[in-house]
Amino acid sequence: QTSEAEVVVFSVPSYACQRRTTLENHNAVLTDALALLAENAELSEEEGRGVAFRRAAAVLKALPRPVTSMTELRGLPCLGDHSLRVIKDILENGASSEAESTKQSERYKALKVLTGIFGVGAKTADRWIREGILGLQQLQESGQTLNRAQQAGLEHYDDLNQPVTKADADVISEIVERAVVSVLPGAQMTLIGGFRRGKLSGHDVDFLITHPEEGREVGLMPKVVSWLESQGFLLYQKTTRNSYLESKDGPGRPSSNMDRFERCFSIFKLTEKERRRTKHPETATENGLRTVSTPEPDPHTGHKLWRAVRVDLVVSPISQFAFALLGWTGSKLFERELRRWAGHERNMSLSSHALYDNKQRIYLRATSEEEIFAHLGLEFIPPSERNT
Ligand code: CTP
Ligand code: MN
Ligand code: MN
Ligand code: MN
To answer: Which residue among the candidates 126, 204, 249, 298 is catalytic per the annotation?
Structure first.
């Protein structure tokens, strides 16, 4: 029992981009509950509430050990009344009654199932729920018109709701690399998103493609997509062309947080054959042979020798590469906090394309992430410590 005066208070800076957050989380019970409430708020289109819960969870993720009493939280940033109530409930009763009842609610369960379909967002799910559609079976029987993405999402529902392993991400990296160098020698590809942050699993695999000579990347995406299609790797793809130059965004005034790079949202067909041909150092045995895991038997066909995987491809000109790399590495909260820091603390506007100094009225150049952090007056945080 420590007296009040002896309680050591944690010291945590208020912006997530000022902190080092590794995958090691000493407060998972607390942050899981807050993440669930955040997710519920986001699915209910209450963005502000969602961000508040995410920021509170991020502060707890940055602590060096488990929280054991409310007094330890004194002076910590981003912990609002609501989040504090949730934490108190867990510390006193072992669980958050609000998180538990949310998890059990029909609405939350339906939102989860429906937004688990690729191509279905909170708005669509909400409309369907109001029409009495709570699950996949009801959706299929309802005769709702589904767009191409949603049809593919429904068709590959089980696979796409199965986490992607790092090993499978490596296999896909090799395929994308082959595609990129085949259609444009000298082009470069970088793994981004959660896997660049060192995560061992993810909901998709993200890649950024560029070429060291400015302009050579123009028209690259359709070629990469054709190559992948011709090899039978794509179950679905939707390519959006680059709209940065023609956009009406003023300097540092993007009309939304969506960037304007040429991009492709796709679903890959990853076969056992591809999994076998790619060497994984981490699964190599002493005699150099790989142990190949037997494929998961599919309940419908008996043996399905492939799985569907969501893959995002982005193409950036080399002049914007550092900004694209920083903007697409995540986490989503880390990105949001970087932009908030830039705007509120530095009077600058940061996007995945550029950094604009609103006071000097100039764009600040950068060829590396380190330079962008320096422009922002922030200590460099490596990708593995952006897991907010
Ligand atoms: N991103 C973006 N614009 C989008 C989608 C994503 O800028 N339309 C950025 C996100 O801000 C994030 C990164 O791309 O920084 C990766 O997004 P995503 O794949 O959704 O998340 P991950 O962090 O990779 O997590 P997961 O393992 O669930 O894929
Ligand atoms: Mn630690
Ligand atoms: Mn991802
Ligand atoms: Mn993604």
So the answer is: 204
